[in-house]
Fold these 2 entries.
Entry 1:
Amino acid sequence: MSVPGEKDDRPLYERFGLRIARRGYDRDQVEAYLTRLLAGAPPVGVAGFDLVRRGYERGRVDEVIARLHREAGPGDQS
């Protein structure tokens, strides 16, 4: 776990415990979304990802995104 305020250089899948599922969210799309969210530029609207073979486990991705939105505080999260 990283220290608050310290840059975490681990890959996103490792940093957030994202696992590969037989069918899951497209990994490139998820990582692009998380990168924008962490940079302080959350994408507008609801997150939507293609379902693909060997993608990230859907439930875990949903948990991570919900947590990051909560931690970002109030604002437009529609």
Entry 2:
Amino acid sequence: MTDEATGGPADPERDPRWELVRAAAHRRVATPPGLVDRVLRSLAVEREGPPLSLAAEDGPLAVSEAALVRLARTVATDQAEDVDGVMVSAVALEGGELQVLTTVRFGTAAGEAARTLQRHLTDELARLLRARPPVVNVHVIDVQPN
């Protein structure tokens, strides 16, 4: 979709589908309990507590929460480059599961993109760790115009 007058990209807010985004914006959605705390905790450099134990073929792999979250954030960001219209906003570990918060570009099939990123991230973490990674949950938390 291009803007006829300038030959450049059209203003996404003029797209009739943008009404769905406006309608969603008018609905107040509560932030899930503890989400902000989990994301802020994931940004901390040092973690306290025992290492996580991940199942591997030759015995359990011990890895610190901080190292796992940093690795997952790096891999998720790299993998998102291969999923059109998806950007990683944050990664946290909560309840033993990785929570990946993403933003999608307007017009992106959000559910499909999230599932693709989830599969790619899980596969790449398993390859790098040579162990079964924690469950990966990908959440679409924002939509950006083109």
